Protein 1
Amino acid sequence: MEQAAHHAEHELDPALEYSSSKLGMWLFLGTEILLFGGLFAAYAIFRAKFPEMFSEQHKELDIFKGGLNTVVLIFSSLTMAIAVWAAQKGDKKKVVIFMVITIICGLIFGVVKYFEYSAKLDHHIYPSTSIFFGLYYLMTGLHMIHVFVGLCILGVIAYLAHIGKFTKDYYTPVEVGGLYWHLVDLIWIYLFPLLYLVG
Amino acid sequence: MANGTAHDTMAEPSFYEPKGFMSWLLTTDHKRIGIMYLVTISFFFLVGGVFALLMRYELLTPEADFLSPHTYNVFFTMHGSLMVFFFIVPGVAASLGNFLIPLMIGARDVAFPKLNLGSYWVYLAGTAILFGALLQPADTGWTYYTPYSVQSQTDVVLITLGVFVLGFSSILTGMNFIVTIHKLRCPGMTWSRLPLFIWASYATAILQLLATPVVGITLLLLIAERTLGIGFFDPAKGGDPILFQNFFWFYSHPAVYIMVIPAFGIISEIIPVFAKKPIFGYKAIAYSSFAIAIISFFVWLHHMFVSGISETAAAIFSFLTMLVAIPTAIKVFNWTATMYRGSISLESPMLYALSFLFLFTIGGLTGVYLGALAVDVHLHDTYFVVAHMHYVMIGGTVFGFFGAIHFWYSKWFGRMFNELVAKIAWFFFFVGFNVTFFPQFFMGVQGMPRRYATYPAEFQTYHEISTYGSWILAVGVVIMFVNLIAGLFSKEKAPVNQYGSLSLEFTVPSPPPHENFKDIPTVTDWTYGYGKK
Ligand SMILES: [Cu+2]
């Protein structure tokens, strides 16, 4: 076991902090998957119960907007990965640039989602319209909340990178924030086909 | 065993050092966060207890003459919600876990001290929402079963939102503890030397991580159902109320073990010290916590035997429920074997630990009755269930918890309570508890249903005994609280090692210094080498 802490500040040494933070984030991501797991379970149950409802009503969803958002999110995961890679190299400038690109992608996702929701509401499609649309609003809505939280986290980390908080030896927040963003992306990759394509 | 530097007891005049009110609210010191949890959960324990006393007072007579039936419904909802979600689930693990885990494994703090403080604040936010919910308190029972929880005119949304927020706190604390136990053990603290309280905390934390998200999404679905009009649980819209029960118990059965496994850890620490013998069956006790944790995810349907599930499913789940009894009994046998031929001293922590053994065994065995399919159909929703769950939750968890407070009090606060008064309080609490809940087994078998403000006159004698018992119990709790609070102001300083424990936390001064250990200790043996000279 490594020597646990510096005496004065109780702060962990960077290597231990890095491995601890990563373990902690992976555990947390597991709980996030379980949270969505409840919704996926509900999806499976109701799809088995009402296959016609799902295959009829999923046609109302906008595959173009959903597909565009999928591309945007996958691209943002790539830029996030590049930001982490730059952080490992200690390239501060690149970290900030690629994190900002990631954040912009997240914002685009939100804007597209806004138009998608308002189009639905214009057609008088509400969460209470049917179980399918209830699931649609709830699953994408909960995901949207995660996108929003992710954007806040990335914003703070990008700012910290900008003021030079990170070095080649210490970039834990970039890596851990990146992990969270990848999860947000991953969940969408499951939501898109389940709701928009398979129905 | 531990070669940590011996500190001078009198060397630390201040209470975990930094001073002032804000230094407490913004502390990242695990010991202080533990104290803040302790104070907060004690508050909710007392409030939840007052609800219980008022309900018992109502039940003195068959008619609803003290509380209206609606108020009675509100009271049992608040009693259950407070005791389960605001006291036992978050508190016992978080208050004791926070104080003990770093000290027991030889660390200066948990892995993420700031997040730890954050978890406490999230917990407080949840309680703040709860106070909002009290303006129009829910009357659904703490299980918030649909369809009633969707139809009820009371404020179900706010209280479930409060519970949802508490869930976050629970998840973050569990995550913090797992990482702490993995990464911050001092040199020589191998897995096979780990105190059993740490093993229990680890199993609890895993349950917190695995089960809490599911209740989170369940409550979120319920909130969506009420606010957005989605019909997941409404048969008229194609939904299914049984789905709610499935989701709810998938969390809430494992949650029973979130509540009681920390108590297993406590008992494993207390008994060897007062029997002056090494713990018997260390590995069996450690691993059985995990066996319980795993099995607990596959038994939830035993709450729904009469909800219209298939007979095959019911039979399978009845069988799986019986399986839980095996690892649980393994623990009880090992604790008993630890005491065999020991030289037992009956100080207050040990009195609580022995009561735990006795009462938890009753609670566990009556759980086997309820898990048996045919018996459950008869006993479902009767006072038998009420008695069973209180024998597990109070007889198990609360007795273990009070034992722990007495056992680690001197370390935590650096002072001592009055031992004689502690024993008197224990006596009232133990007697009062049994007088309150034992008659409820008989009532239940004879068909007295739970959750009613009124009842047929033939049950009055049982109810009277039960209500008188609740007063004795309350006297015990009041004496205990007064004694523990008075102890804080006693002049006498507590010794480093009050009861002769060999665990690492008893090598540091009472109270421990801010950084716990002057130098990180090195451990060369397990903590249970008692009686070998
Ligand atoms: Cu259960």
Protein 2
Amino acid sequence: MTSSVHDVGAAASFQVGKPRRVEVQGRGFVVLNVGGAHFAARDVCPHQGARLSDGRCKGHVLAAAVGAPLAYHRGRALLQCPWHGWIFDLANGSCLTDPERARIRTYPVHVRGGRVFVDLA
Amino acid sequence: MAAAVLSAPAVAEAPSEPTALGVIDCDVHPYPNTIDTLKPFLSARWVQYIEQSGFAAPPGTRYPKGFELAARRDAWPPNGLRPGADPDFARAQLLDTWNLQYAVLVPLYGHGSVHNDDFAIALATAVNEWQTHDWLDSDPRWRGSIVVTPQLPEAAAQEIRRAAKDPRYVQVMLVVRGQAPYGKRHYHPIFEAACDAGLPVGIHFGGWGTNPITATGWPSYYLEDHTGMTQAFEAQVLSLVSEGVFEKFPDLRVALIEGGFAWLPPLMWRFDKNYKGLREEVPWLRKLPSEYILEHFRMTTQPMDEPPNPQHLLHILDMIGRDDFLMFATDYPHWDFDAPDRALPSVVRGEQRDKIMSLNAAAFYDFERA
Ligand code: FES
């Protein structure tokens, strides 16, 4: 029986805030390091199929009410698709603007001994 | 050559039913990288004018885009040029990735907003010459659109007559937000020249006029700018039909590019209804407005209208009522790019799909002129 846990590279190769594509058994995954916490998801946008690894790690823009000051919170694992700009939360795979219908599959990530492991189970 | 470093779309992940025919893309945007790109195609007078004045580009949009230069984030060539400025990269990322049969170039340059008439005319010609030499000559799958100065219709007609001699040009191009509705009589020389050349006119998303971009003034957001573009398309359809342009130029064909299409059926219903009571204003019309629309216009698909229930798209196609009416387009390299294997929902299948993805454009544009 083969393990579902895969070594996808040295931790140092995943820069904070820079999504990176890795391939495991011919399938693409995007790995994102947000402040030292790592996240992984299939590297394909459910909308029209762009590679999310070409996208941008975002902060969360919020306003408490219409006309209230705009806040920009960093720290969440938000990744914006490089094509039509849908934003996904890699912590749970949901799309910010359509959480019920647009989702990406996410996977647990562990860092051990300076290596990053993705569990594809 | 950029192909090796391309981040190709994940085409193998969940493609729709493939079309056996090569896809034809009716909307691709090449850009001069900077004004220097155009200098070889400008006279010494204008090169000197640019260098002395520091002119960099015609005025741009008032609405910052969602992404820089409105480009897909993966459309920036690794050689540092701007998106849409490298024909080799575009060939690899678009033509080769999707194995396109043809792709129609639609340069979006702001010469329509240049107040110096002679300079505007020179820029339009330079954009066409650059399109010819840098793009059309680089791959036989590219086809061109003749850009003109709509603010100077006689000069536009002259440019059409000049540029149309190259059979790789398949249409004349206008932007939808012009200075006035295009049916107005002073624009007719443009349509006359297009018909004389046997070319359709493409009317594309965007514009550079001084008019507010909605019928009720300036909105706040790019979200409104982009979504509200259909208002301008509706206005141009109303104008071209009402002013009798298709009675005066019965051979004229018009492609509405990047305007969406789901709004058309209710416009036709309303237009026909009002015409029945108001025909005395436009007695040159000999048939219902919708008949002119369905005969003379075609629409490109991008940005694809995406009803939550894809079946509703079939209803819209049914309401339009012609299966030769829609033509696929990607809008590469822009952020609202439609992927050839994913944009058109799989509920559209068989012959209807082949027509939208390929055959309708092959019938509308004369790709075999070249
Ligand atoms: S392909 Fe990702 S938002 Fe459209």
